[in-house]
From TrEMBL:
Signal peptide: 1-24
CDD domains tied to this protein: MltD-like (cd16894)
InterPro entries in UniProt: LysM (IPR018392), LysM_dom_sf (IPR036779), Lysozyme-like_dom_sf (IPR023346), Transglyc_AS (IPR000189), Transglycosylase_SLT_dom_1 (IPR008258)
Gene3D superfamilies given in the database record: 1.10.530.10, LysM domain (3.10.350.10)
PROSITE patterns to which the protein is assigned, alphabetical: LYSM, TRANSGLYCOSYLASE
Region: Disordered, residue numbers: 434-454
GO cellular component, one term: membrane
Similarity comment text for this entry: Belongs to the transglycosylase Slt family.
Matches recorded under Pfam families: LysM (PF01476), SLT (PF01464)
Keywords assigned by UniProt, alphabetized: Signal
UniProt name for this protein: Transglycosylase SLT domain-containing protein
Domain of life: Bacteria
Lineage, broadest ranks: Bacteria, Pseudomonadati, Pseudomonadota, Betaproteobacteria, Burkholderiales
Amino acid sequence: MNETTRSTYALAIALLSVSAISHAADSAPSPIAQSSSSAAAMAKAILPQSPTPSKSDDYKDPDLWARIRSGYAIPDIDNALVAKHVQWYASRPDYLTRTSGRASLYLYHVVQELEKRGMPTELALLPVIESAFNPQALSNADAAGIWQFVPGTGRDFNLQQNMFKDERRGVLASTDAALTYLQRLYTMFGDWQLALAAYNWGEGNVQKAIQKNRALGKPTDFESLAELMPAETRNYVPKLQAVKNIIANPAQYGVALPTIDNTPYFVAVDKTSDIDLAVAAQLAEMSVDEFKALNPQFKKPVITGESTKILLPKENAEKFNLNLAQWGRALSTWTTHKITSARESIASLAAKLGTTPEVIRQANNIPPQMRLKAGSTILVPKTSATAGNDIAESIVENASMVLEADRGESRRNGRKLSGAQRFKASAAHAVAEIKSRVSRGSKPAVNANGRKRR
């Protein structure tokens, strides 16, 4: 998904005043930036809602796929691109099975949120196109999570991104942000197909395409604008239509959809202190991998924050609470340390803390032959002096880590490293620099027409 600028209240009011909301943005200027929180609130307030949005608790069909079918509301398209993508998906049953398996963890929640907002339920299938429902998916433009937010757009919609977590990957926060963004785009264009194109290409680009066709006296619907769109966007809505067709009638395409129960897969559990990710998984009687699948936003071995929620299957949540009441040991074994001097090495810090350099490197994803610059904040094992302390919220929000090549590692036993070793160190340095720029909030490069490279 592409990072875009945000609408102002003035634009929202102008759009609302256009008769018959359809294609409201045809005559609107490109949006200009303003605070994301107000844009998100505005979108929720002004989106036309269905007169009687369905209530998920009243929906009795045991099959979640059937529930999705019942809420289809976006007009169909039928063209060669749709047929091409139907054939692609239908000929890859293993791909659909893997994607459905991942989707089974999150899909009920997405459908429920769509119904609460009165939105078309086929939008729940959009992560199939974006990420194959893989929360660890990462694009070339650093778009992350099942909804593929780039860093800047994530921040626009209040998705926290810091050293400890990335809410672009979290199920609850990213779904709320994605649906709010889609609502805003629908309000802007009055057309779900154009809203989807804007989700992929950017609202400014879609507005320019509309204005160009209007000036030529041409229609401004999605298919009429498709020839002005880049290939990715031109295929975007047909891909969703293809998946929609297969879900609507899998037997017609020789597809056997895995069953997904129409019941909540997870519940949210409050935590009131720092807790090691491995301890949380142990208390819930889950493997670490199973725990991470529901909580992919956590980037470190410790989950920080008093108000942070974790997601667990209902029966595991009950086990978690029971085991937590009987735990009687420290919940967290990690704290932070700020490097104050360039002379403070990972080795010397490890010796001071009674651990090994490898433990510190692994916890902080520090490549070999790289060292920490002064001012960096890293995760370290707790000592008796810090055993009872949680990591302060101010540290969580502002901590950063900057790496540089460790010149002290360039000689071993009086001789230089080999060419291969120097190349490895140089590559590690380049990777570290990229990661440090991302952690500082740098934005991905754009090409000439302003579109993010995915």
